[in-house]
UniProtKB/TrEMBL annotation:
Coiled coil: none annotated. Pfam families: BPD_transp_2. This is Simple sugar transport system permease protein. Keywords: Cell membrane, Membrane, Sugar transport, Transmembrane, Transmembrane helix, Transport. It comes from Novispirillum itersonii (Aquaspirillum itersonii).
């Protein structure tokens, strides 16, 4: 294989991994939330809120670090609202999550009005000198931006947390049987709220990646349905972190491929090519739904169910 072909392949794989970052971060956050027994459909709204908060903070302060922190706080604020309504006021989780998405879409559009058309300097990729120049492996392994490595590390930490850590086993127990966990003294609502806040922080970071790294600019509705794909990824992964990451790479690859196909001048309407990632989501969900036994065995038993300490 020629050096030029290796470089082109490396660039394609790097672009695929970058496109997967917001999907993976949002899916991992939602995975932790659902492991505790809470279903939050407000992922899209939290991502948009995080995206506009990150962009506004970065433009205002000149610090991307501050922008990422603002995105996490914005996502957590949205998640806190959701958690208070569903865990303490016992509102329906599905309806509240949908309302959170609608609220996030409107709030981000309002806050972002003054930032339309502005740009920021994107996050620089890590460069390790000669290592980054190795054909194929150099750019793929040693030439990514820091958020790609953060996503990989976060996947490993979440896997370890649920597989090895006592606290992770407690979260899983709460997701399986909150009444049993409450009976032996665990603060079920606080544990679930912590999981919801973590999910909000991850969704905020996912939105920040779109507005600070992937684009990098603020565009109203820039998530373009990625929050819903992230929700589908959790089911696709059967609530396993590494499978969620692989699923994000798959959908990221489809996104990049359809862009390359458009650039090659393939005689297909651009609308058809643009819908490929969402069509793939539907196909995957249809295929997964045929194996209902696996879903039942892996899904948290109490997901979406209201818990009251005196109930």
């Amino acid at each position: 294989m020629s050096i030029e072909l290796l470089d082109a392949t490396a660039l394609l794989l790097v672009a695929m991994m970058r496109a997967a970052v917001p999907l993976a971060l949002a899916a991992l956050g939602e995975l932790v939330t659902e492991k505790s027994g809470v279903l939050n459909l407000g992922v899209e709204g939290m991502m948009l809120t995080g995206a506009v908060a990150a962009f506004a903070a970065t433009v205002s302060t000149g610090s991307m670090t501050f922008g990422l922190l603002a995105a996490m706080l914005a996502g957590m604020a949205m998640a806190l609202l959701f958690g208070f309504l569903t865990l303490y006021l016992l509102t329906n989780q599905v309806a509240t999550g949908l309302a959170l998405t609608i609220f996030g879409i409107g709030l981000s559009a309002f806050v972002g009005q003054g930032f339309v058309g502005q740009t920021v300097e994107p996050m620089a990729a890590v460069s390790l000198g000669a290592l980054s120049q190795i054909p194929l492996i150099g750019k793929l392994v040693f030439g990514q931006d820091p958020m790609v490595y953060l996503t990989l590390a976060l996947t490993g930490v979440i896997w370890w947390f649920f597989a090895r850590a006592r606290a992770g086993l407690v979260v899983r127990a709460v997701g399986e049987s909150p009444h049993a966990a409450h009976a032996i003294g665990y603060p079920v609502r606080l544990i679930r709220l912590g999981a919801v806040l973590f999910g909000g922080a991850c969704c905020g970071l996912a939105g920040a990646y779109l507005s600070l790294v992937y684009t990098p600019m603020w565009v109203e509705g820039m998530t373009a349905g990625r929050g819903w794909i992230a929700l589908a990824l959790v089911v696709f992964a059967t609530w396993r972190p590494w499978r969620a990451l692989l699923g994000a790479w798959l959908f990221g690859g489809i996104t990049i491929i359809q862009l390359h196909v458009q650039g090659m001048g393939v005689d297909l309407p651009s609308q058809v090519l643009s819908m490929l990632p969402y069509l793939a989501t539907i196909v995957v969900l249809v295929l997964i739904s045929r194996d209902s036994t696996r879903i039942r065995l892996n899904a948290p038993a109490s997901i979406g169910k209201v818990f009251h300490p005196e109930g």
